[in-house]
Design a protein that fits this description.
By secondary structure, the chain is α+β, with helices and mostly antiparallel strands. 31% of the residues lie in helices and 23% in strands. The N and C termini lie far apart (94 Å).
């Protein structure tokens, strides 16, 4: 083999090697871009899924927190409800009226009452702990298909305790708000209450209140249900400062009668006639609900305690 021929072969090999190292073909470039795009898409999908999961968990946590806080507020303030027989001798000087009025409606009930639940935010404010409170539902002005649970408070009790005051939203986008009241006179649960009418529960308060709050927007579009049962501690209307001898005697007799009625209800409950569980809540009615849940009661008084609250998904 001659030297020129060997050199020629070496030059061809070197030239081929240089052509191979010169760059990528169009097909190779497209394949590389496709691989990079696929990897980028997978990374973005992973991060986006984590962000959506985190937002969803945060929204669920907010809904449960809102429901628990709203139920706790309603229960705490219902426990402080009171009635008063303090009236001037001349009815022309009457400037305030205490009530407990509850209306049964769908999808949300309403209750207005006077309570020892006001908190003074200013030390020199001319206010007391007595206040007018109402709980009811209103349509959202921006979304008419959205129902919100609101709280109304007027820090001064007047002759129209069902009106006036400041309204604030307690819970957004509710499905229903139901209240039921245990009557110690009859030993039954009722959907409405009116302490201002002789034909209703005149000058009386319910022994217990069953509260049910249902929110929309649960996991998978399900409903979130919260319910609790709380006692009302002050069963006998206030009447020790009555200046009228006739009304004073009536107040004392009424107080004794109310105390006896409460004791009778408690004795019946302790014998098992009204005890046991939350009962069935079909069609918004309570069947066989116990009168001893949500707070213990002893003797002629009642220890309010802290309401038992639980949240469930429907």
């Amino acid at each position: 083999m001659s030297t020129p021929r060997v050199l020629s072969r070496r030059r061809r090999r070197a030239s081929a090697a240089r052509r191979g190292e010169a760059g990528l073909t169009l097909v190779e470039v497209l394949i590389s871009i496709s691989i990079l795009a696929l990897i980028g898409t997978l990374i973005y999908g992973a991060f986006d899924g984590m962000n959506r999961t985190r937002r969803g968990i945060g929204q669920m946590s907010d809904r449960y927190h809102q429901g628990r806080q709203a139920l706790s507020r309603v229960a705490r303030e219902l426990q402080t409800a009171f009635l008063s027989r303090h009236m001037p001798l001349d009815q022309n000087y009457l400037v305030r009226k205490t009530i407990f009025i509850a209306e049964d409606s769908s999808p949300a009930d309403r209750v207005d009452f006077t309570a020892f639940a006001h908190r003074r935010l200013m030390s020199d404010a001319h206010e007391s702990d007595q206040t007018e409170i109402g709980f009811f539902a209103v349509r959202d002005p921006e979304q008419r298909n959205k129902l919100d649970l609101v709280r109304r408070e007027s820090k001064f009790i007047d002759l129209e305790p069902e009106r006036g005051g400041v309204v604030n939203v307690l819970a957004e986008d509710i499905d229903s708000f139901s209240l039921q009241y245990f009557d110690p006179m009859t030993g039954e649960w009722t959907d409405s209450w009116d302490s201002s009418q002789v034909t209703g529960q005149y000058d009386r308060l319910p022994l217990q209140v069953w509260i049910t709050l249902v929110l929309r927007g649960g996991p998978g579009g399900q409903l979130i249900k919260f319910e609790t049962k709380v006692p009302i501690a002050m069963q006998v209307p206030l009447g020790w400062a009555d200046q009228n001898p006739n009304t004073s005697s009536q107040s004392q007799n009424g107080g004794v009668q109310s105390g006896n009625d409460v004791n009778s209800a408690l004795n019946s409950a302790s014998q098992g006639g009204l005890s046991g569980g939350m009962g069935n809540t079909g069609n918004g009615r309570v069947q066989g609900g116990g009168a001893t849940r949500g707070g213990g009661m002893t003797g002629t008084g009642m220890s309010a305690g802290s309401p038992s609250t639980r949240g469930t998904r429907q």
